[in-house]
Amino acid sequence: xxxxxxxxxxxxxxxxxxxxxxxxxxxxxxxxxxxxxxxxxxxxxxxxxxxxxxxxxxxxxxxxxxxxxxxxxxxxxxxxxxxxxxxxxxxxxxxxxxxxxxxxxxxxxxxxxxxxxxxxxxxxxxxxxxxxxxxxxxxxxxxxxxxxxxxxxxxxxxxxxxxxxxxxxxxxxxxxxxxxxxxxxxxxxxxxxxxxxxxxxxxxxxxxxxxxxxxxxxxxxxxxxxxxxxxxxxxxxxxxxxxxxxxxxxxxxxxxxxxxxxxxxxxxxxxxxxxxxxxxxxxxxxxxxxxxxxxxxxxxxxxxxxxx
Length: 308
Fold this sequence. Notes:
Elements: H1 11-38, H2 47-52, H3 60-86, H4 105-127, H5 136-156, H6 162-196, H7 199-212, H8 220-237, H9 241-262, H10 278-301
Helix pairs in contact: 1-3, 1-6, 3-6, 4-8, 4-9, 4-10, 6-7, 6-9, 7-8, 8-9
């Protein structure tokens, strides 16, 4: 991809700038603004205490507002300002806008579904992973945090109406699909590639960081693999819109299936930690592998301006 890097600084310095910028927006300024806006929709006295104690469905709107604004500020607004004004770089190199990439949407959708099915044994294994005895304190902390985040996720995905689904779709699928790919693939992966000179190292380190930032250790490996998938889609295509759509589809498909399960339309529970039947897993794995090879060959024959 032509002029993909976003900085003329040393890559490690640039990465430090990115981490500080994202952390400030996502952990400090974004949540502060979000809490201020969310308080307009909350009748109690201490919204912060309510959100951090035992949030339930009564806090659905304040939770979504806070989460949505924090994600937008930290993962989209600040990174865009960082690229455009601090680095004084154009945004165009991240997006091959002249390419009719939307024609590949059916391919990306099938890859996404196949990958989700193929990933289920890894999800089951990781959720039941037992740390060695010398890490028992860390294991207890990790499990406690995992349980707390799972409870929060249940609140955020407890769609009691179509309105809830629409709000959740925007906050959980649209914003992260755009923002997390902009940060982890557009910024971090590019800087890691510039630093190491190796695209594969950059993809996997960015995927590791992508998973680590979620602080869910019993879902760590599946998220690393998911991040690597997005990384290779970007690496091969040179178009950030493609991993953005793949990420958006992954989250959005999961939310829609959860809603249909809650409505009794389907018996497929996306919250289940059990692996899919092995014939499905093998089919999903083979389908994903074959279509990724096709995707890579497709862009190789197009002689993309992105350098593999």
